[in-house]
TrEMBL record:
Pfam families the record matches: cobW (PF02492), CobW_C (PF07683)
Leader sequence segment: none
Keyword terms of this UniProt record: Chaperone, Hydrolase, Nucleotide-binding
Protein name according to UniProt: CobW family GTP-binding protein
Alphabetized InterPro entries for the sequence: CobW-likC_sf, CobW-like_C, CobW/HypB/UreG_nucleotide-bd, P-loop_NTPase, Zinc-reg_GTPase_activator
CobW/HypB/UreG nucleotide-binding domain residues: 10-186
Gene source species: Plastorhodobacter daqingensis
Amino acid sequence: MKVDGRLKLVVLGGYLGSGKTTWLRHQLHKHDASTHVIVNEAAETPVDHGLLGRAAGLSVLAGGCACCTGRDGFVRALRNLCDGWSRAGARRPDQILLETSGLADPAPIIEAIRSDPVLTHHVLVSGIIVLVDAQHGSTQLRSEPLGRAQVAAADRLILTKTAGVADRTLAQLVADLRAINPGAEIAAAEHGVPRLLPDLPMEGLAPLPPLPAAEDLTPMVAMRVALEGVNWAGFSLWLSAVLHARGNDLVRVKGVMRTPAGRLLVQAVRQQVQAPEVLPDAADDPSEGHLVVLGRGCNEAQLARSLGIFTA
Ligand SMILES: Nc1nc2c(ncn2[C@@H]2O[C@H](COP(=O)(O)OP(=O)(O)OP(=O)(O)O)[C@@H](O)[C@H]2O)c(=O)[nH]1
């Protein structure tokens, strides 16, 4: 929808693996509004764009977060899109949605849009939705300054993966979120479908402790592991083993692998490996044949070496 002549832009943020793409896929199926989606991924090899086929238009910005290293590229790309839509006869979307990388802080992205004279003329940031993984949220908010920054930037927080999470854990998470951002609306969704939160026991919860100093944290990096020629049995054994050993450091794993059963989307969030999803056949998918691992405490060569041991 155009607001005072400008296009609405919604920023969708949330920590690595919090459920942004899943939630967005559901919204694109449910709503008729034509949405141009911009997917930003920290890794050089994008994976999520292949899942968002229902978007009216899709732009992929890979290899840097729009809040920091990818900021100039993001502003340039958004300017180019707006220029294209301003041309006579161009088909404009009803809205733009930016799915940020899981390593992005939404605040500098919004600042980048609002401080650009061309973009302020074309675009109005109309909402900042941040998804929070109910299973890992409280741990993240106690260990990752980025998790807190994302929550602080939101005007709507949506808890994902709430099914099966104890009320006490949900209550602690809601208390943590309210402590960081008392003004944000808090809702819940399961695989994108809105869900009512139960009445939660809000007494006797722990206050949020101070965060570890930023300089004590090793920066999170994006690593890429080649999967060409790797056999599925050895690969899945390796993935379980490496996440069992290092799942707290290797926060997010995703990739597309060709197997005799078809093209499989492989995903894990911390120690939880998801059942692989069969993807439609696609030629020239740059994400195929690679695994993207976001984490800290190891490097690409070490990952490739250990995969080689399992799949030799
Ligand atoms: N049980 C459950 N699983 C979910 C839900 N939302 C997402 N997932 C799973 O969590 C994993 C990560 O979901 P994504 O939607 O890819 O998360 P993301 O935030 O886009 O991930 P990044 O872009 O890598 O940060 C996938 O395996 C999803 O199937 C949910 O509401 N419930």
